[in-house]
Amino acid sequence: MNLKFEYPFTAYFPADVVKENYPRQVFDAAYSFVKPKVLSKPTLIKASDYLAKELGWDRDFLASPSFLDHFSGQSFLDQEASYAMAYGGHQFGHWAGQLGDGRAINLGHIQTSKGTLAFQLKGAGPTPYSRGADGFAVLRSSIREFLCSEAMHFLNIPTTRALSIMATGELVLRDKMYDGNAAYEKGAIVCRVAPDFIRFGHFELFASRNDQKMLKLLADYLLKNHFKHIDLQGSDCYFELWKRIALLNIETVGHWMRVGFVHGVMNTDNISVLGETIDYGPFGFLDAFQMDFTPNTTDAEGKRYAYGKQFDVLYWNILMLANAFGQFDANNLKKYEDELTHLQAIINDTFFTVWAQKLGFETYNPNIQKLIQRLLILLEQGEIDFTLFFIQLEKDLSSRFDFTTIAYSENLEEGFLKDFRLWLEDYETILKLNQISDSKRIAMMQTTNPKFIIRNYMYQIAIEKAEQGDFSEFETLYYILKNPYVITSENEKYITKMPLWAKNKIGCGRLSCSS
Ligand code: AMP
Ligand code: MG
After folding, report:
1. Hey, whose CA ends up nearest to atom 7 of ligand 1?
2. Which of 47, 73, 300, 459 satisfies CB 3.0 to 4.6 Å to 164 for a cystine?
3. Which residue stretches of 329-365 are H helix?
């Protein structure tokens, strides 16, 4: 197979005039040409045959030397083609200035059966945007990104995809817990795939420099390539673009809430303008239900990116994007302001719709809303497992409802059990009131609530084995992630609570950003 790379991004935007690869502020440019690091012996760990099939690529190609060469970056060493993009961002609520692809190198776009897609290597070496860091990625975080991107896809959630994971054959120094105990770890490269990797922070960087020309170019590029249905001639095309970006992301965060996914680092540089989940770092799925659960140890104090805050933070990010758009679309400011109020209502609506559907309703009304609010409190009180609860509820509405396998709390108080029984009774009544038959309820719950999610402790087991050269558990997770909505003989044993030993083990419940 002969890969034909195209360069719509570099053809459209001005390039950095400095050619040397050293960390710096890059002005008047959207990207810098940069080559991946020369590797003496990269090896393929895994190619996603799920994705390859969707791209229309044959399986033999995945095992070929050409595949290894391309997606370890080695076939880009003697041409000026691959590039790193400039962007900025707000991190934990503070403007962080220029960030950019510090360890991502874009190989270009390829036309595939899924449309024109961008291919980007994460961990292929330093770029002008690496700041003080090395440009590499370690095996553990690459395994997490590879598996979770593919898992999110099969959960029907918009996400960047993972084509491959390579071992670089080199070691990378990391202070995993930021406690002064740095150690060498194996390096890896994930090839991510998306229609484009443009983030809110792309707009924010140029807005911070009052670079109206570049802001307009960015918006025009998106309109031309990704939002073709928006009328380009219309005076509102930029406002429409911003609104569409906001709506796409609201939909995606709605999905996260549905499956209990906590992104962990929703900085504006980690939010895609295409609404895809991007940048898998210290993410996690809820085990015990807890509104303020965050898997990110860096966020343990502020809990800015906790499960229950994800919509608030998204709204704040959308506001930051509106500020950037306001710089080059100043005539429309009032429209942005009015729309922000409207978006707040859509967010509220999305939250309750998602939760109503988790309970088998099509949509919500004030009665269902109250039912949801009571449930949120009960689930948290009893430390009930988020995923297992809905599996159980789908099966059994009666007073026999059994908490022993789904609660983390050891002694559920009589008061809690009584309140919960009352809740179950009201649930049944409201189902009847809304004429939701059991078959209708179950059908809705089965497409809304996943049965199998990869919990952080499962990644951790797969990672610890992989670090010793045994990829069997990684392979198993990869194999079973494709069927998250049904219980099969293969995934059955993974559909249980997080084990006690994992509760306080690093990497299992919570993770640091170090990757
Ligand atoms: P993240 O928190 O992973 O989204 O990264 C925030 C910023 O830091 C981005 O600009 C990344 O490219 C950069 N970055 C993170 N890790 C590294 C690394 N190991 N080397 C260079 N840049 C990095
Ligand atoms: Mg990032």
Report:
1. 99
2. 47
3. 333-358
Q: Which atom, in ligand 1's list, is nearest to the CA of 134?
A: 20
- Name the residue among 252, 150, 210 with its Cα closest to residue 459: 150
User: Is residue 35 located within the same domain as residue 177?
Assistant: yes
Both tokens of 131, joined, read: 């700041």
Q: Kindly state whether residues 285 and 368 are assigned to the same domain.
A: no
3-state SS track over 16-62:
CCCCCCCCCCCCCCCEEECCCCCCCCCEEEEECHHHHHHHCCCHHHH
Whole-number Å distance, alpha carbon 317 to ligand 2 midpoint, is 14
User: Is residue 35 in some structural domain?
Assistant: yes
- Of 231, 204, 206, the C-alpha closest to 318 is 204
Residue closest by Cα to atom 4 of ligand 1: 270
Q: Which of 157, 124, 165, 49 is nearest to 462 (CA)?
A: 165
Active site residue 269: yes
Number of domains in the chain: 4
In a domain, 507, yes or no: no
Question: What is the best residue among 24, 99, 138, 268 to mutate for testing ligand 1's pocket, by most ligand atoms within 8 Å of CB?
Answer: 99
Looking at the CA of residue 265, tell me the nearest atom of ligand 1: 2
Q: By alpha-carbon position, which residue is closest to atom 18 of ligand 1?
A: 135
Question: In terms of Cα–Cα distance, which of 454, 466, 481, 452 is closest to 48?
Answer: 481
User: Could you report the per-residue pLDDT of 305-345, keeping only the tens digit for each?
Assistant: 999 999 999 999 999 999 999 999 999 999 999 999 999 99
137-185 pLDDT, tens digit each: 999 999 999 999 999 999 999 999 999 999 999 999 999 888 899 999 9
Q: Residue 270 C-alpha to ligand 2 middle, in angstroms?
A: 5
Question: CB burial class (10 A; 0-12, 13-18, 19+) of residue 137?
Answer: buried
Given 16, 196, 211, 269, the catalytic residue: 269
Q: Determine the structural domain holding residue 419 and report its residue range.
A: 363-448
Query: Best substitution site from 87, 103, 129, 513 to test ligand 1's pocket, by max atoms within 8 Å of Cβ?
Result: 103
- Give the pLDDT of residue 399: 62
Q: Are residues 252 and 328 in the same domain?
A: yes
Is the distance from CB of 62 to CB of 56 less than 8 angstroms? Answer: no
Pocket test for ligand 1, best of 130, 171, 190, 268 (most atoms within 8 A of CB): 130
389-428 pLDDT, tens digit per residue, is: 999 999 987 767 888 889 998 888 999 999 999 999 999 9
